[in-house]
Amino acid sequence: MDSGRPAGSTLDAAVPAAQQEPASTAGVRPPQVRGLDGLRGLAALYVVLFHCWLYAFPGYPHSSAPPWLKGLMFGRVAVVFFLVLSGFSLAISPARRGWRSGGVAEFLRRRAWRILPPYWAALAMSLIISAFIVPASHFGPPTVRSFLVYGVVAQDVITAPTPNGAFWSIGVEAELYLLFPLLLLVRRRSNAVILAACVTLPVIARGLMAPGASPVEGDNWLAPHLAPVFVAGMIGAGVVAARDRVRRLPWAWFAVLAALPVVVLGVVQGSVWTVNHYFWIDLAIAPAMTMLIAAVATGRPAPLLRFLTARPVQSLGGFSYSLYLIHLPIVMVVIRRVAPHVVSPGLPTFLFTLAVALPVSVLGAWVFSQIFEMPFKRNRSWKTLIARGRFHQLSGARAGERPERQPSP
User: Fold this and answer.
1) What's the pTM?
2) pLDDT in tens, 273-291
3) Exposed, middle or buried, 396 (CB in 10 Å: 0-12/13-18/19+)?
4) DSSP code per residue over 17-58
């Protein structure tokens, strides 16, 4: 999700050399892959719509929603797409340099710097709302255990009442980040097939050994199951550094062909069956998602890329992480505390939530991102962040100065 600051910016020249980052992190970087932010934005927006649908129509997956809204019930698929996209994005730079990580400690530091500050801010907000306004789960309000577990991002390992139901995937990502350098090592020392086999075959074996070959998932320990979708994205990133012959392949059509059997199976079996078999659906749909991202990364199809890079979509992608972090408490407040006093249950509640919670979530996420996300996205260390702040303070002070008025002759 990193975008980095533009090289050669005015601020870079204004920050003293001693306060700038070393050349290894602040030097000229490869061009950013266009369209990925747009994909993030659309996926985050779908998750918001899913939660508006989920809490307006109780009984999931046997929902009382009108049939024409059934397309909003697959929020899990959007989160899986996030994981595929995360693996793809993180692996772009290593793929360009022979699958070398650039340093394990530096990678983990940069991930923590980028992910944790907005997460902790959203955690504080979620704890307050869940404790004093509306609980975020059927386990009730958060406890001290919730604060400790979610504070160290251990929610995929240790069970605790959640302050924010969307935070489960952050715990999964944190574990996959820890595994990422090892996964890169396997990719560099072997090939994509061996890497995929190492993480996928144990998951398939576990699934086949479950009763009825249909594992029942709990609230955590999802990282081992979802590691293959993350690795699928990593492997797909090789397209960015591949020969032109590979880059020119019709990846978008490959994505359609790969997704078609999964979609047909879901339609034939029904939405409830699909939700109850996410263990297998996640693995089956990941290749199609990877090929779609590869198509966007190679600039095709052009109409899709133009849409993804349009200002509104790209802007939404720029603060999609903040939107994902804070939207659910807002949706819960609207549905559980506001809507019952204004509209009747069911479809009126859903439409009311769309009209209120959706714009509030998007606007709130933008404001949240400006305070808690963008400063850490644009800077790579406290040193540059403080230097930037001092530069803006100095610029503001100089802008406020007025030339001394000369006495009239």
Assistant:
1) 0.88
2) 999 999 999 999 999 999 9
3) exposed
4) GGGSPPHHHHS--PPPPTTHHHHHHHHHHHHHHHHHHHHHS-
